[in-house]
Amino acid sequence: MNFKRNFWWVVIFLCASSCIKDIDIAYPDYEEQIVLTGLMQPDSILKVRVAKTLPVLSADNNYPVISNASVVCFENNVKIGNLLYTKDGFYVLNYRPKAGLSYRFEVLYEDKRIVAEDTIPNVTDIMIKLGSINSQNPNQNPDLFLSLSRRQASYVWLSAITSYKYGTKLETSGAIIASSHPLFDTFNTRKSLEGINGYEKYARLKPDFLGNINFKFTVANQVSVVKAKGDSFFFQISDVSQNYDRYLKSSLTAFKSSPSKNGGINDPFSEPIAIYSNVKNGIGIVGAIQTRRIILKEGK
Question: Does any domain span residue 3?
Fold first, then answer.
């Protein structure tokens, strides 16, 4: 009986194997698109980059740049000038954007008109202070105190950074922000630290928390490594536009389903997601940001 059962399994396997054949799956026709990118900051002149896309299966990492486009910028719908081509696809205008104002870029190339617009964000009233060492915190790190005051929605991202000497080199790395306060958006929480949510590299504050907010939190990486002169522990606070906020959040979410360095998937259960773009008749992102740094500890 066992022989007969094994015999039929062999027959079924051979029949199934004989039905296998190679099928050529045609990829959709490639349609070249214009890529427009730029990040506006009040302390920098206006600059955007114009390039072309590459086919999906292309092994080339150098995107074809466009050097003969016409690029015009408008401030609150008033033309302020034509951007001049420099190199590597970059066009610049010797003009610094202002907080609260809107800037539109119009790119004319061959028979295409590509448009992107964004508004420079205002600075949110936020402060972070260093407290005393707390043995209950990860690595016995000090408490940190955040105070926030706002009357309207704003888009704020935080990064905690340690910079310290290791041998003859200066090591700079992002510290994991540790907090379970509801002000933090949990979309990119990567791990739990002693029952506390951890945010690697970036922590996004929910835009709809209004009023005066004060709370205590900490970081996971050792702050005690900041000892020598030139070492520092600081926070970078980034006020971003709504467009750039959507781009950042969608990019980090998409990263979860991308291959990791060892060939695995950062999050095998994540859903594919399209990265946000505010470019019409093309792809890319033209965003706006204001950044500032709060130094909490310096080496001596």
Answer: no
Residues 132 and 263 placed together within one structural domain of the fold: yes
Residues 6+ apart with CB under 8 A from 217: 143, 144, 146, 177, 178, 179, 181
Q: How far apart are the first and last CA of the chain?
A: 83
User: pTM of the predicted model, to two decimals?
Assistant: 0.84
User: Of all helices (H) and strands (E), which one includes residue 6?
Assistant: helix 2-18
Tally the domains of the chain.
2
CA distances 50 to 245, 259, 278, Å, are 22, 28, 14
Residue 156 DSSP code: E
**What is the mean pLDDT of each successive set of 10 residues along the chain, which is 300 residues long?**
48 47 60 94 98 82 92 98 98 98 98 97 97 91 96 96 83 90 92 78 94 95 87 96 97 75 53 86 97 93
Verify that 141 and 109 share a domain, yes or no. Answer: no
Q: Are residue 40 and residue 184 in the same domain, yes or no?
A: no
CATH code for position 129: 2.60.40
